[in-house]
Amino acid sequence: MRFHLAPVLGCLAGLLIAQPAAAAVIISTVNTTSGGILANQLTSITGNTHLAGDSRLFLTTKSGRIGVYQPTTDSFSTFLDLSSSVVGASSNELGLLGLTFDPGYATNGYLYAYLTTRSTPNGPVEAQVQRFVDPAIASGPSSTIWSMNLDG
Description:
Layout lengths: L4 H11 L4 H14 L3 H5 L3 E5 L7 E5 L3 E6 L4 E7 L14 E6 L3 H4 L1 E9 L6 E9 L9 E7 L3
Antiparallel strand pairs: 1-2, 2-3, 3-4, 5-6, 6-7, 7-8
């Protein structure tokens, strides 16, 4: 199977553009409708997306947590917790910074996260795009799609 990088890089362009005002409006709305549940469960929100193709709202935090709000049940849960591999979450431009879904997510379950991590313990800090597979849709390992050394 060949992997085409161009569609992924196109999707990632949207990850790299910060939209804090839009995020604040959406989060404020969700906070109001769910009795403040997000205020108690998420801090340092770095992004949000509806791109899974359904009504769920996905929220990312700098520390590496991906939460999902389900408006039909007014519930919030952790979708994916990457906090054990995310480094630099207390720094300005480090941490889990974005999330996007593959155009074929409904069938392949692929989602992509832009984050800072280390490939090896005590190794250099790297910016990475990692692909994960939603186990509710498909099975498969996660993998690093792109990586750049930030330490030098």
